[in-house]
Design a protein that fits this description.
The complex is a heterodimer of chains A (261) and B (409). Chain A has helices spanning 47-54, 77-87, 103-114, 118-131, 147-159, 177-194, 205-208, 251-258, and strands spanning 5-16, 19-31, 36-40, 62-67, 70-71, 88-91, 165-169, 197-202, 213-218, 221-227. With 261 residues, chain A is an alpha/beta fold. The longest helix of chain A is centred in the C-terminal third of the chain and has 18 residues, at 177-194. A six-stranded mixed β-barrel of chain B has the order 2-3-8-5-7-6. Chain B has a two-stranded antiparallel ribbon with strand order 11-12. The chains are: A alpha/beta (261), B alpha+beta (409).
Chain lengths: 261, 409
């Protein structure tokens, strides 16, 4: 099976005063479609940097990253934006919901950006909120939701357009044990039932216990890459082929995926 | 698009206190412009009607050669058969009446001193029927009855320089049409103070028959046309042009605005002041809004980063900020228009008066006109100013580095 993500000899340096700090050092990683993979490591080990690079919101100093076989270093900013829009979903540590939008409107936003019809948006938003168990809270604004609920809305927002890869940066860091466990179960469930590929950074042991594959980073280098028995997931959907030269790609992609909702 | 508009609308009210302050500032600017513009409109309208009713009329008819005339023998280029011309004009729609005039020059002597004057010969009945009145008249107006003493009204400056008063006599000297010097004795029945010292120093008015006798001519220099309303000036002008073209003598028709030099100067001055105020409001809104919108952009850095991470095109971010600013400008304009009209109505009902301007002895009432053009203009000004002020914050927001924006605290 072709890899969904290929990280080839990637390094990332950041300027600091008159020197450079190497956040990632010659990292190589392959992620297959349908994986549920955790990047673990202590603070400052480079977890978020690696996620940012795979999420195409930062660029490596050296090396290259391929998403669905497309070398992201060759894409223009417009095509990178289109790739993120179609192929990726993001879950953030601090939820990052739009505070003036309701839960449903937040989930709808990625579909709006992709140009889905209003009917299609309604159907998909209802299904996404249903899948995270928040149908009853659809009309609530984020400030009226608990931390766990907000993060579940963020997960619904990340999966509503059926991306090939969902990136979650420390998704349980701001949640209590109960909500963290619920969120882990939810993400794992979505991974199994919908075949979505999840890649998240964490140092939360609770989350790691439920993870199929754990990549450990220390000082910007991968020190271990372990698989559990569940790691080979048979329920993998074929990822959509991304055309890097079509910045309008989205609506057709969504229409194809609608059938699987 | 509707969701995008909804997002912009809700973002406007995200920080209510700041939005209210911005609305007060924008609305205050619009209110200020409406009050100033409304007052200027009242003043210019008053000056316009004063100018017209002081004797200028709405339209004036001259011969085509009038403006090339010799100022000594003014009636050489006068209107020959003016009664026929007046009749032709009087039957036109919107025309309320026609008053013949002779504008002439001569010398006034009191026996010891002679001073040049600018004379205006009028038909008192025609002038009164058109509502023309002399401002600051001491004594009485001219007697329209023919025969008896020739009467004259002098400008205050001329009376002072000649050292004469009401009831005194003067001798007027002027060149007749055939080049001879003619004279007529007049009795001063009134002294007029127009408020314009240059005019008062030379002004003299007598009746039309007296002037025709002095100038030895039956002609008049011009016919003053009064209309039912100033707003019908253009209509009447268009109607009268073909009628005048059908006459044997070639005529020229002038609108009041072409002859009201003082009005035009005042109007230009008011327009200049209003333009200056508009520029101040524009920059006041622009500068303060840039700061407000930059603050809003900084507060939403992480949110913008999130939107960009989700693949939102950067042009959408620019459009969102500009839309928010435009909405804010629109709401500020509504607040300003409502506030300005309300405040204007309150001021109008308060019966306020302004001190008398130079040359006036009575206070002028303070009124604010509700002028739709000013409302629209002021609204467009602040909306444009706010949209312009959002460009820098919008571009800065759209150029945020996503990873840095997401890490923003």
């Amino acid at each position: 099976m072709d890899d969904l993500v290929t990280v080839e000899a990637v390094s990332r340096q950041f300027p600091l005063d008159h020197n450079y700090v190497r956040a990632l050092d010659n990292v190589n990683l392959r992620i297959a479609p349908g994986e549920f993979l955790a990047i673990a490591g202590p603070s400052g080990s480079g977890k978020s940097t690696l996620l940012n690079l795979i999420g195409c919101i930062d660029k490596p100093t050296t090396g290259r990253i391929l998403i669905d076989g497309v070398d992201t270093s060759t894409l223009s900013p417009t095509n990178l934006t289109a790739l993120r829009r179609v192929k990726l979903g993001f879950v953030f540590q601090t939820f990052n919901l739009i505070p003036v939008f309701t839960a449903a409107e937040n989930v709808e936003f990625p579909l709006l950006v992709q140009g889905f019809s209003s009917q299609e948006r309604r159907t998909r938003v209802a299904a996404a909120l249903e899948s995270v168990g928040l149908s009853a809270r659809a009309r609530h604004r984020p400030d009226l939701l608990s931390g766990g609920e907000r993060q579940r809305v963020a997960v619904a927002r990340a999966i509503v357009h059926r991306p090939a890869l969902v990136l979650a940066d420390e998704p349980t860091a701001n949640l209590d044990t109960h909500n963290a466990t619920q969120l882990i179960d939810l993400m794992h469930d979505l991974n199994r039932t919908l075949g979505l590929t999840f890649l998240f950074s964490t140092h939360d042991q609770r989350l790691l216990e439920h993870t199929d594959r754990i990549v450990r980073l220390t000082d910007g280098q991968i020190v271990s890459d372990t698989h559990t028995a569940e790691s080979l997931n048979p329920n993998v959907l074929n990822p959509q082929v991304f055309n890097p030269h079509d910045s309008n790609q989205g609506a057709s992609h969504g229409q194809v995926l609608a059938a699987s909702l | 698009m509707a969701k995008f508009l909804l997002l912009a609308f809700r973002n406007v009210f995200r920080n209510r206190r700041r939005t209210v302050m911005t609305l007060i500032m924008v609305g205050g600017g619009v209110t200020g412009l409406l009050l100033a513009g409304g007052y200027f409109a009242f003043m210019t309208r008053g000056l316009r009607e004063d100018t017209i009713n002081a004797g200028l009329g709405h339209l004036q008819i001259f011969t085509a050669d009038h403006f090339k005339r010799d100022e000594v023998r003014v009636l050489d280029t006068g209107i020959e058969n003016w009664r026929q011309v007046a009749a032709t004009v009087s039957s036109a729609p919107h025309v309320r009446g026609v008053a013949p005039r002779i504008d002439f020059y001569g010398m006034a002597s009191n026996g010891t001193k002679a001073v040049g004057f600018m004379g205006s010969a009028v038909d008192p009945n025609a002038e009164r029927s058109l509502g023309f009145r002399s401002r600051g008249l001491v004594g009485r107006d001219l007697d329209p009855k023919p025969g008896g003493e020739v009467e004259a009204i002098l400008g205050a400056g001329l009376a002072k320089s000649m050292n004469v008063k009401v009831g005194d006599g003067l001798t007027l000297l002027a060149m007749t049409s055939d080049g001879a010097l003619n004279g007529v004795d007049v009795e001063i029945v009134g002294i007029v103070n127009s408020g314009i010292s240059e005019l008062d120093a030379r002004y003299l008015r007598i009746t039309l028959p007296a002037a025709q006798r002095l100038l030895q001519s039956d002609r008049v220099t011009n016919l003053v046309v009064g209309l039912d309303s100033t707003s019908n000036t253009d209509l009447a002008y268009t109607e009268l042009i073909p009628r005048l073209n059908g006459l044997s003598q070639q005529m020229t028709l002038k609108k009041w605005i072409d002859l009201a030099t003082y009005y035009k100067q005042v109007n230009t001055l008011f327009n200049g002041i209003f333009l200056f105020m508009g520029i101040i409001v524009f920059f006041m809104v622009l500068m303060s809004s840039v700061n407000t919108l930059l603050m809003a952009m900084l507060e939403r850095t992480r949110e913008i980063g999130t939107m960009l991470a989700m693949g939102t095109p950067r042009t959408w971010i620019v459009a969102l900020f500009m839309l928010e600013a435009t909405l804010l400008g629109g709401m500020g304009a509504v607040v300003g228009v409502v506030g300005g009209n309300l405040l204007g109505a309150i001021l109008n009902s308060a019966g306020l008066h302004m001190p008398p301007p130079p040359g006036y002895s009575v206070a002028i009432s303070f009124k604010v006109l509700h002028v739709p053009a000013i409302m629209v203009g002021a609204s467009i000004l602040v909306i444009f100013s706010l949209a312009l002020s959002s460009i820098i914050p919008a571009i800065r927001a759209s150029r945020l580095q996503i990873a840095e924006a997401l890490a923003h605290v």
